[in-house]
Write a structure and sequence with these properties.
The chain is of the alpha+beta class. Helices cover about 35% and strands about 40% of the residues. The chain contains five helices and six strands. Strands 2-1-6-5-4-3 form a six-stranded mixed sheet, covered by helices on one side. The protein starts with a helix and ends with a strand.
């Protein structure tokens, strides 16, 4: 006869102890932002754009509105990904709850631009981005 403890452990392993697959699959804000950087550097456009909320909002810090919506981001980034003209290097990174702050060096067509980027991540998607640029 099987032990009740072994049977319970089997069910916990198979069914996640009542935690749905969706709950397990939600990445931390830091993981989401780092996935974004990886997809950016490998020019994996579909994976990159799917890290954003459909209603993402983009600003120049602190509150100069630049763009909203994933479709708008697609029109900006898809050509850059197709030409493989962009790369990003994270210089410094900190997190605070749903926020990830990066100091980044973005290279586009051989031209470097320094950024401080503030990403807000909710439910595994980037919902807001604020850029501080070094012109």
């Amino acid at each position: 006869m099987k032990s009740p403890v072994l049977i319970a452990m089997f069910f916990l392993l198979c069914y996640g102890g009542g935690i749905s697959q969706t709950q397990k699959a939600i990445a931390s804000p830091l993981e989401v932002v780092n996935q974004r950087m990886d997809h950016y550097n490998h020019h994996y456009f579909e994976k990159f754009i799917n890290l954003y909320s459909d209603s993402v909002r983009v600003y120049t810090y602190p509150d100069i509105f630049l763009a909203s919506g994933k479709d708008n981001l697609e029109s900006i980034f898809k050509p850059k990904f197709s030409s493989k003209s962009i790369q990003v290097k994270i210089i410094t990174q900190i997190t605070n709850g749903n926020y990830v702050v990066n100091q980044e060096l973005v290279t586009e067509s051989g031209v470097d631009t320094k950024y401080v980027s503030i990403y807000e991540v909710r439910d595994g998607l980037i919902t807001t981005v604020r850029f501080i640029r070094d012109y």
